[in-house]
Amino acid sequence: YPSELLIQKITEDNQIPVHLHVSASLQYVAGLKGNALVEFFHGNIAEVENEELRHLMWSSVLFYKAPSVEAMACVLLSTKAIYFLLDDSFIRADECQSDFWNQENSDCGNSSFHLSRCFVLKLNDLQSVNVGLFDQYFRITGHSADHIVACLTRDSYNTHAFMQQLMAVLSLLARTPSPEPIDKDFYSEFGSKTTGKMENYELIHSSRVKFIYPNEEEIGDLAFLVAEKRDDLTDLQSLNILLYVLAFQVNRDEGAARNTSLLQPKTLILTSSDLFLFDEDYISYPLPEFAKEPPQRDKYQLADGRRIRDLDRVLMGYQTYPQALTFVFDDVQNQDLMQNLTLDHFGD
After folding, report:
1. Which domain holds residue 252?
2. Domain PLEKHM2 PH, which positions (predicted)?
3. 81 with 151, same domain?
């Protein structure tokens, strides 16, 4: 260990997304290649001597205890734990959460010394993994509120690759098998007998970790919410969600505060008639078992919504992924003006 193939794969994955800026300490990590990267892991991050680094991924992360702060992290998966090497900016932005992070010895007089926080979730503490819609993100849940982290990959390929590696590593864990249920059929496994409602699709791994995937009802609930925002619940059957993607809205406001990021995380939903931007809560739903009360905000909050027929043009940048798109809409004061004129002039 490790094989040349694994070293090559980890080196290829060690690239910060070009549209996201990180601190000097993570820039240093991203500059490591080959054996230097593996040696860095064993010298600075690994907690036990015989653990193996299996996968590396760069992703935005959200913590359950700090749901409003999205930070960049280098996610390292080993045979013992999942390590989140966090950007320094997260610590500064989250000073109010002093009970969550131990702030002692965080200041170093030597400016050339870079200190990063590393959040560790041991695989033995892992209880469930919730995969988001269309594999745009996933949430890892441990045994307490301190051990819930959402990785916003915004990329189905990265999500899928991490899931495969995580399942492979979990297979190495020696856990006592849970007792086999008696006469377990499809309806008792996936449905609730009291309501008759289908629950989300669950895959229980041999390590007893649950992998929970969204089912069709989640899309139905989302379609209902979108129709509700349009004030058009009558035509729910014909409403199709064509696209759901985690994106960033570019903040071009010159007068915005300096600490406001240019890239604002948004959920983009495209239907056959409208384009919506939502502020989505990726970390609080579905509610963890130990949650005493529902979250303070709804899962989806409408940020902006425009009709496709008001779309004037779409401007596309020439750069490769991630692609920048600019949607230009006609600014009509009364959106139903044309419709009313048509009805008045031509009759019913």
Report:
1. 216-329
2. 112-178
3. yes
Q: Is residue 148 part of a domain?
A: yes
The pair of structure tokens assigned to 302 is 């409408």
Q: For 154-179, what is each residue's pLDDT tens digit?
A: 999 999 999 999 999 999 886 655 55
222 & 168 share domain:
no
Q: How far apart are CA 218 and CA 201, in angstroms?
A: 11
Bridge partners of 73? Answer: 59, 86
Nearest of 179, 210, 214, 181 to residue 199 by alpha carbon:
214
Do 52 and 272 meet the contact criterion of CB atoms below 8 Å apart? no
Same domain flag for 253 and 207: no
The C-alpha atoms of residue 70 and residue 267 are separated, in whole angstroms, by 14
Q: Three-state DSSP class for 64? A: coil
Of these ranges, 193-202, 204-213, 247-256, the one predicted with the greatest mean pLDDT is: 204-213
In a 3-state reduction of DSSP, which class is residue 280?
strand
Among the three residues 152, 183, 212, which one is the final residue of a domain in this structure? 212
User: Is 9 within a domain?
Assistant: yes
Q: How far is CA 96 from the centre of its chain?
A: 23
C-alpha closest to that of 84 among 74, 94, 70: 74
Q: Is the pLDDT of residue 255 over 80?
A: no
**Residue 183's pLDDT band (boundaries 50, 70, 90)?**
low
